[in-house]
Amino acid sequence: MMDIPNKLNLPSYKEQAPEVKERLDFIKSQPVVLEIDNLVKEFPTEEGVRRILNDVSFKVHKREFMSIIGPSGCGKSTLIRMLACLEDITDGLILLDTYPVTEPGADRGMVFQKYTLFPWLTVKKNVMFGLEVANKSKFDADREALQWLDIVGLEEYADLYPAQLSGGMQQRVAIARALANKPKVLLMDEPFGALDAQTRAKMQAYLLQIRRKIDITIIFITHDLDEAVYLSDRVLVLKANPGEVQELVEVPVSRPRGPEQFLSPEFLTTKIHLEELIHPSVEESKDDFKVVKMVAVEAE
Amino acid sequence: MSIKEEKWFRFGKGLSQKRVRGLTVASFILPLLIWSAISYLPLWQPEMEVVETGDTFYFEKGDRVDRETFRLENEKLTADGDVPMVGKRVNPVYFPAPHQVAKALYSAFVTEPRREGDPWFHESVAHSVRVVFWGFIISSIVGVPLGIMCGVFSFFSKLIEPFVEFFRYFPAPVFGALAVAILGINDAPKVAIIFIGTFFQQVLVIANTTRTVDFALVEAAQTLGAKPGRLLFKVVIPAVLPKLYMDMRILLGWAWTYLIVAEVVGTSTGISWFINQQAKYRMFENVYAAILVLGFIGLGTDMILGAIGRELFAWEDGKRSFFSRLMNKNKPTPAEA
Ligand SMILES: Nc1ncnc2c1ncn2[C@@H]1O[C@H](COP(=O)(O)OP(=O)(O)OP(=O)(O)O)[C@@H](O)[C@H]1O
Ligand SMILES: [Mg+2]
Fold first, then answer.
1. Taking residues B312-326, what's their average pLDDT?
2. What's the fold here for domain A4-105+186-193+216-299?
3. A222 in ligand 1 pocket by Cβ < 6 Å?
4. Is the dihedral of CA A137, A143, A148, A152 positive or negative?
5. Of B217, B220, B324, the CB nearest to A163
6. Which of A133, B197, B208, B314 is the most exposed place for a label (fewest CB within 10 A)?
7. Closest C-alpha among A52, A192, A187, A53 to residue A115
8. Which residues fall within 8 angstroms of residue B150, CB to CB, at 6 or more apart?
């Protein structure tokens, strides 16, 4: 596995073209929007306390697009929910613009994998929800909501109800709804996970397009490595049990991104590297096999 | 309509509008047909109504006699050389025919009360409606907010629900005597019985319904900056409203079932009083008429509330909100750009 890039005659993922290096250096020189400092999460279980996240630290810079990947159950959702303060912090610090966060707020918008539009509100009213929380006048809220819907390309659906929209469209409205609050960071937990491959590709294109139009920092959880490489500036790789930072990978793919890059050497080599990182080691696969055998025996 | 014959029985599938309407009508026509058959055909009719008395001393015109007795009496009369009775087969007086009840449905409203000062039928009906209305309203004013709070906050749930759970096993009628002692003999104790019968169920039902609200919606609202007050009034309550409305319709039905008990508490009033009076005079067609009126009011109210609900909660996409969301994935996406 280790020498696949060599065999395929691919460059190392660490090799960055000058303009890529320049862009990444620029991002890293930007102010830190979100600083995660020795974050720990424990859940009480029957067998005692279980540590899900252990000393997770990283920094997200202004306008950065950071993906988080890792094996299933390593605590990605828990981590992003802690950033949104939907989950208590066991230990450590989360600093937003240098201030510790203590409760959920509009400064950290979130898009969930589940569809969470309010079904009793029209598309426009959904987008207006956060604006009304912020005490904007009805007129301003209305106007801004329509602008945001325009950005996600759904202005003509403003007066429909969520149930009348496809899954992809609902997620675009959810993105507009979160962005309308002008959050400092947009948290996305597998937002396209429930969509079919085609819609998913369209949504990725939309997201890249939105990012070009507006000034936004994004943390994006996915289990799709293509998606992670395609969208991100950097990819945070977590390992499981307990969840710890394994590596923060800089993506050597130039921007603007397009589907043709999926087959470029830098893209492939990065993807192969990520694959190696989250691929369970031989030891672990043996464990998995044992469990499967145990289950099989019990079933008999 | 496709050329292929539509099947009547398909697992979990609906039927065409036309068939639904047909079946709804049939669901009322069938019992009516059975009732008519038993009333007008000699299927049961265990009694004879005396039409001509002949020479008998024992029976008068209009009397209803057991068929066996009638036959024996006529045999005796014939043996003695007397003129036998003439009779026709009828059902017992407590089983009137549809046309008699239909007539009573009208005549009950226009018949003057037997005694001066007694209420007319429509006044009795209004009285019943009033008792149910107030019992249900008072119960709801307290029960709905309490139920919602129990559904939202564990604090209220754990503090209130165990006792409510215990209390609801007391049948409401056992409080009749107490209610009269405390509240007097007018309508207050009756309203109290409806209240007791409804309230405790209401708190539990509404609390459970509130707990079914998708918590992800609350979390989404939190990440949009919403604080507790707004979460409650702009997220939890709108989210629970369609189901809550459904619950209220069912609870209102339960409140109705307590009516008859409530009305015999203290002095008998309303439709129960009317029914008991009519049964005493053996005017059973009026008894059935009164029962039917109760049914019509109940069904009518529910149908009106249902229609209002469909309007209010159109965003749910009718009753298929759950399925439609599942099926949204397979539907061709409308002009996805
Ligand atoms: N409330 C909870 N109580 C106890 N354990 C929990 C709780 N929530 C999550 N966990 C555990 O924490 C671990 C991490 O869960 P999490 O959902 O964050 O994983 P994930 O990386 O998002 O997985 P996936 O890729 O499948 O979405 C899991 O093993 C899960 O069982
Ligand atoms: Mg997850």
1. 56
2. Rossmann fold (3.40.50)
3. no
4. positive
5. B324
6. B314
7. A192
8. B156, B157, B160, B161, B203, B206, B207, B210
Cβ–ligand 1 distance for A114 under 6 Å, the answer no
Cβ proximity of B223 and B268 under 8 Å? no
Say if CB B194 and CB B129 are below 8 A apart: no
SS3 B59: coil
Of A198, A124, A272, the residue nearest B329 (C-alpha): A198
pTM: predicted TM-score of the whole model, two decimal places:
0.84
Contact criterion met (CB below 8 Å) for A151 and A158: no
Distance CA A177, CA A125 (A): 9
Q: Output DSSP code: residue B118.
A: P
Q: Which two tokens stand for residue B35?
A: 């009732």
- At B332, the pLDDT band (50, 70, 90 cuts) reads very low
What is the predicted pLDDT for the residue at B86? 92
| Neighbouring residues of B268: CB distance < 8 A, sequence distance ≥ 6 | B276
Cα–Cα distance measured from residue B98 to residue B33, given in angstroms and rounded to the nearest whole number: 10
Residue B236 touches partner A, C-beta closer than 8 Å: no
Q: Does ipTM top 0.85?
A: yes
Q: Which residues from B are below 8 Å from A106, CB to CB?
A: 223-225
What are the residue ranges spanned by the domains of chain A? 4-105+186-193+216-299, 108-182
Look at residue B336 and tell me whether its pLDDT is greater than 80: no
- Cβ(A280) to ligand 1 under 6 A? no
User: What is the rounded average pLDDT of the residues B254-263?
Assistant: 90
Is B112 part of the contact surface with chain A (CB cutoff 8 Å)? no
> Where do the domains of chain B lie, and which CATH numbers do they carry?
47-90 (no CATH), 109-328 (1.10.3720.10)
Residue A51 CA: which ligand is closest? 1
Q: In what order do the strands lie in the sheet with A91-96?
A: A48-61, A32-45, A91-96, A99-100
Q: What does B167-231 look like in DSSP terms, one character per residue? A: HTTS-GGGGHHHHHHHH-SSHHHHHHHHHHHHHHHHHHHHHHHHHTS-HHHHHHHHHTT--HHHI
Distance between B132 CA and the closest CA of chain A, angstroms: 31
Res. A171 pLDDT band, cuts 50 70 90:
very high
